[in-house]
Amino acid sequence: MWVYRLKGTPLELDPILLELFDRGARGVEEREGEVLAYFPAPLELPFGGVWEELPDEDWLSAWRRDLKPVWAGPFVVLAPWHPWEGEGIPLVIEPGMAFGTGHHETTRLALSALARHLRPGERVLDLGTGSGILAIAAAKLGGKALGVDIDETVLPQAEENARRNGAGVCFLPGSLEEALPHGPFDLLVANLFAELHRELASRYRQALAPGGRLLLTGILLEKASLVKEAMAREGFSLLEEEREGEWVLLAYGI
What's the burial of 211, exposed, middle or buried (CB within 10 Å: 0-12/13-18/19+)? Predict the structure, then answer.
């Protein structure tokens, strides 16, 4: 078995996950700052990754064994094969073809922030939903959640994850523009990247109800100033700034 290692952020790598499966990947694993795609043999791929040969063993069993539950605030993120009878709010997420398994700092930052900021009954928009993990977490906290993603191929998995968790979440293809008619929202959570947050800053206000809040992550520490400057120009008030590793979450209010 061979593994193809790709460096990058979730937003950078998410669009190629389906193509990796189309080219024969048997599984994909999200780690901090990289993705590992497992293949029976190496082949030419145009994505700039590095091939490594794995020891001759049952790679799927080893992958499942090594993929551990992850804590984020009050949540524990589990794969479907993880038994769990402990404390915490379980989020059962199938790892694979969409980002958001809890193993990346930005997802953990967003989950923790949701628990601090979301009040039961509030309307929540998860912008760039991926696996649906943040929308599902919002629903488990008592929110009324909508998840949108420009990549329609991730939505069936998001819907299956919501079903697996017993969470009533609506998922739609599109971006912020397509979500606006379903608002206004009390809370918007977006795990994107700094330049896109800067581009969307003027539109965020249109999505929010009076007193609404934003949870923005996917932001590298070195680029946080880009987002802060754009949000200040739009009149948003910084409520908190949380950091894990080289990643930052910024919470704003209006």
Answer: exposed
